[in-house]
Amino acid sequence: MQNFMRVEFSTGIGYKAARFVVLTALPEKVFEEIRAQKLSPQARAYAVALKTAEHVQLIDPGLRIILLSNTPGKVKKPEDLGEPAYVADDGCQAWVIRKPGTDHSGAYKKPLY
Q1: Burial class (CB in 10 A: 0-12, 13-18, 19+), 13
Q2: What is the helix, strand, coil percentage profile of the chain, to 5?
Q3: pTM (two decimals)
Q4: How far apart are the first and last CA of the chain?
């Protein structure tokens, strides 16, 4: 069983700033190792999400991004996510579920999952 974490970033503090969301899946083995070390799974999810943003080139190198939220994610059908955008060495997977776009009106957009 995988544990999903939803990590949301912004490129600024205004409501018109570009945002993107990465859904990470921590395999049970990794999750248990994190718990055994008394660490937070959010820290690993954050690291995987940053690597995903670099790998998929969602942001320009050197651009300052702000972490908005890092919460447990709920996925009804994991198979509907498709191929992950990034796979870490320890088996953690990540999908980009919201990319920064040109429309920053602040209007709610339904996520892809």
Answers
A1: exposed
A2: 25, 30, 45
A3: 0.79
A4: 18
pLDDT of 14-47, one tens digit each? 878 888 899 999 999 998 999 999 989 999 999 9
In a domain, 103, yes or no: no
Q: Tens of pLDDT along 39-91?
A: 899 999 999 999 998 888 877 777 788 899 999 988 888 888 899 999 999 99
Q: Phi/psi of residue 4, each to 5°?
A: -95, 140
Q: How many domains does the chain have?
A: 1
Q: Domain range spanning residue 6? A: 2-98
